[in-house]
Amino acid sequence: MSHETILIASDHAGFELKEKLEAELKTLGYDVEDLGPNTDASIDYADYAHPLAERVSNGENDRGILLCGTGLGMSYAANRHPHVRAAVAWTPEIAALAREHNDANVLVLPARFVGEQEGRDILKAWLDTPFAGGRHARRVAKIELDEHPTTENS
Ligand code: RB5
Question: Residue 70 C-alpha to ligand 1 middle, in angstroms?
């Protein structure tokens, strides 16, 4: 049983699957902090992506899960935060590769395009797959602008 606290948040399009995956995480033994929303009323995805991503970025939490209709808006917002690697995954294979090759610390689910069981399978693949390290660690390090020699920030 893990006692890691995993963050989760969505917009209205991801709300229903968020509730299902939150229950699944608890069944798997994770502590979960739900950063909202608490209803499926229409809201703006960035308002929920940024607070979660900030906490992963500053190291307060290791991992988070975001859900919106396509996964795109949530991933755009989350990936603006340093050290956040938010991966949109619509199959378990993509979720596993996002961990193995890209060390994805935020899983983003396109809730309008995956069913409940697919969502559970994607979540499990992301939770259970370790980062491979090695050459992938070099590549992941180069994602950060201040680590990349061609950017103005280096
Ligand atoms: C909401 O209708 C939808 O635009 C949102 O969930 C998401 O898909 C945006 O990227």
Answer: 6
